[in-house]
Amino acid sequence: MKALLFPGQGSQYIEMGLDFYNKFDIVKEIFLKVDDALNFSLSKIILNGPESELKLTQNTQPAIMTIGVSIFNVLNKEYGFNLKTSNYFAGHSLGEYTALVCAGSLSIERASYLLHERGKSMQLAVPPGEGAMLAVLGMTIDEVQKEIDLFSKEKDEVCEIANDNCEGQVVVSGKKNAINTFHANLKNKKKKGIILPVSAPFHCSLMINAANHMKSKIESSEFLKPHPNIISNVTAEEENDINKIKTLLIDQITSKVRWRESVDYMIKKGVKEFLEIGPGKVLSGLVKKINKDVKVSNINSIKDITNDKF
Q1: Reduced to 3 states, what is the DSSP secondary structure of residue 240?
Q2: Same domain, 112 and 212
Q3: Can you name the residues that pair with 6 across neighbouring β-strands?
Q4: pLDDT tens for residues 171-219?
Q5: Is 200 inside a domain boundary?
Q6: Strands 295-299 and 229-231
Q7: Do 180 and 55 fall into the same domain?
Q8: How many structural domains compose the chain?
């Protein structure tokens, strides 16, 4: 059994997908569709920068999706890979939208619009400089939650788990002061944490305004039943009910990304091969940390395409 994975924010870089864009008309068509849907040239930002523009989350989110969908279509239509025979599609945070597009559930035009709006609303949900995210290394999610519970008894500020990426890599999100104090507490206990260079505290209750903003936009969008089933970040289980998927995409904005559990779920269901499609190879690395016995590969350039990948 096989599964396709689609990356989230942080994997972006200038000129991502350039070799595909230069070689395949289908990619140029996808870029044009995204530009038309957004009423500005995201293509120029992806291919030429500046990096400061690509890093804006309202641009980063649709940009990463664009590259994932482009590579997926090249593999299917130019190289003859029948990726629809995969058992599951899964994406990390915004990557879930890429998965939905590739699974035929959501049009790329609507996904571009939703991700651009999602990025803007997430950025505006918390005033600049008031939020932060911390990667906690070498601790299980239960150990991190225990530390948060102890911390929360003393401080009445938001400090919540945002990402359960793999064993030993848990991301915490919340108010900047709370995150800094929590970080200091971990240091005192000889625990390692790294403040992440993000523009807002994603995937925590501080994102409630963003979730409220996106609710009607997601609910009014046309979704079709995905094939194959999508693994939800919120439930860490497969979903194919359209209304449930919409609700979970809204919940996802304030909920933690249950990536470790999602990968474990697919493995328990019999998945033995994972292929990451899109910029970077962050998810490939996480899967290897979650389970060393499964086959993991990634495609983010033409030279990565070999028959043994899938």
Answers
A1: coil
A2: yes
A3: 91
A4: 999 999 999 999 999 999 999 999 998 889 999 999 999 999 999 999 9
A5: no
A6: unpaired
A7: no
A8: 2
User: What span, in angstroms and rounded, lies between the C-alpha atoms of 68 and 62?
Assistant: 10
Confidence of residue 151 (pLDDT cuts 50, 70, 90): confident
How many angstroms separate the Cα of 43 from the Cα of each of 24, 115, 234? 15, 15, 31
d(CA 86, CA 309): 13
Give the C-alpha separation, 206 to 310, whole Å.
40
Of all helices (H) and strands (E), which one includes residue 6?
A: strand 2-6
108 vs 151 pLDDT, higher one: 108
Give the residue carrying structure tokens 């590969």. 297
Burial of 168 (0-12, 13-18, 19+ CB in 10 A): middle
Q: How many residues does the chain have?
A: 310
H helical segments located in the chain: 18-23, 25-38, 42-48, 51-54, 57-77, 95-102, 108-124, 141-154, 176-188, 208-219, 242-252, 259-268, 282-290
Query: Which distant-in-sequence residues (6+ apart) come within 8 Å of 243 by Cβ?
Result: none
The pLDDT of residue 309 is 60
Q: Are strands 169-175 and 159-166 parallel, antiparallel or unpaired?
A: antiparallel
Domain of 105? 2-125+205-309
Q: Which of the residue ranges 146-150, 232-236, 289-293 would you say has the lowest mean pLDDT?
A: 146-150
Report the sign of the C-alpha dihedral through residues 66, 11, 256, 287, in that order.
positive
Final residue of a structural domain among 195, 222, 242: 195
Beta-bridged to residue 246, according to DSSP, are none
224 neighbors 249 (Cβ within 8 angstroms): no
This prediction has a pTM of 0.96
Q: Residue 276 and residue 202: Cα distance in Å, rounded?
A: 23
Residue 310, strand partner residues: none
> Do 217 and 190 sit in the same domain of this protein?
no
Catalytic sites, residue numbers:
93, 203
Secondary structure (3-state) at 107: coil
d(C-alpha 186, C-alpha 190), whole Å: 6
Residue type at 112?
S
